[in-house]
Amino acid sequence: SADRDMLSAFLSNGEGYVPKSGQIVGILKQMKDTMEKSLAEITSTEEQAISDFGSLVAAKTKEIKANTAAIESKLERVGQVGVEIVALGEDLDDTSKALLEDKKFL
């Protein structure tokens, strides 16, 4: 049969089995090296992103504090201006009344 002839030819060839495990180990080592390099690059990128995010959070927090202080200052100024308007309005009323009294007197 054909199978028997092929088996006989294989066995009589004399070369025997040549292990290929060296190639497999080489391929696996190359894969490991590639994955380690990729991991290092990804880790570096992630660490940079974390650092950038931390800097952004710090800058935005500082900006929020500055804007909050500006809003509080402006609200206080609005209150002061409101009080000044009321005081000036009363002063205007008093001055208008005094003017009318002075006109009556003349």
How would you summarize the topology of this molecule?
Elements: H1 2-12, H2 21-105
Total domain modules: 1
Strand content: under 5%
Fraction of residues in helix: over 70%
Q: Termini, distance in Å?
A: 147 Å
Average pLDDT figure: 89
Low-confidence stretches: none
Overall outline: rod-shaped
Number of strands: 0
So how many helices?
A: 2
Q: Please describe the biggest sheet, giving its number of strands, its sense, and whether it closes into a barrel.
A: none
SSE class: mainly alpha
Rg over CA atoms, rounded to whole Å, is: 46 Å
Topology as a string of helices (H) and strands (E): HH
Characterise this structure:
The chain has 106 residues and is an all-alpha fold. The chain is built from two helices and no strands. The model has no long low-confidence stretch (mean pLDDT 89). It has helices spanning 2-12, 21-105. The chain is rod-shaped. It has one domain.
List its salient traits.
single chain, 106 residues, mainly alpha, 2 helices, rod-shaped
Question: In brief, what are we looking at here?
Answer:
With 106 residues, this protein is mainly alpha-helical. The chain is built from 2 helices and no strands. The mean pLDDT is 89.
